Amino acid sequence: MTALALLDYASVFVFALTGALVASRAQLDIVGFVFIACLTAVGGGTVRDIILDREVFWISNPSIIMVASAAAFVVFFTAHLLESRYRTILWIDALALAVAVPAGVAAAIAVGAVWPIVLIMGVATGCFGGLMRDVVCNEVPLVLKQGELYVTCAFVGAGAALALLYLGQPLSVALIGCAGATLVLRMGSLAFGWSLPVYKSRPPRV
């Protein structure tokens, strides 16, 4: 199994957990759990593969859908054991982001994409699945939530991978650096409130 395939499997499973947890907050049935888990798990990778003109990863490997569905069943029978499902979603989603961004970077590099496309594919793979999940479940999208870093984390992580490659590091080291930068920044935002300045409206000048 290739490194890209392993990243895809890991990203799918962890993102599927977050999708199923959001489904539990919406009190959906088991079919709804599976649908939201699969949508979250493959959304970002599907966008990535369509843009890169690759065969969509879960079509070439349908076992991906089985992994996402298994995660949905696990959450369906265990979500009630969690003290705070929302906090769990935040932290598991941070882990999922740190796996998905390197998967997007690796996929873009595999097709010989230039560095701006590699950067964009890392961000898209990390962010679009969660965005679809939250929009469909009528939740405030985490990627747009005020006062938290999210897209920025994906952007910095993908940039770290490119920087390491530029410095002559092997792809495996670059992907580990990507995951580490993404995870540290996202967890720092959750734990310590790290954020970027937000726009504040002002009265127009007369």
UniProtKB/TrEMBL annotation:
Instruction: Kindly indicate whether the keyword Transcription belongs to this entry.
Output: no
Keyword Membrane in the entry? The reply is yes
Q: Which residues form the Glycine transporter domain?
A: 6-79, 90-164
Main subcellular location of this protein, as a coarse class: membrane
- Where is this protein found? Cell membrane
Q: Which family does it belong to?
A: Belongs to the UPF0126 family.
Query: What's the protein name?
Result: Uncharacterized membrane protein YeiH
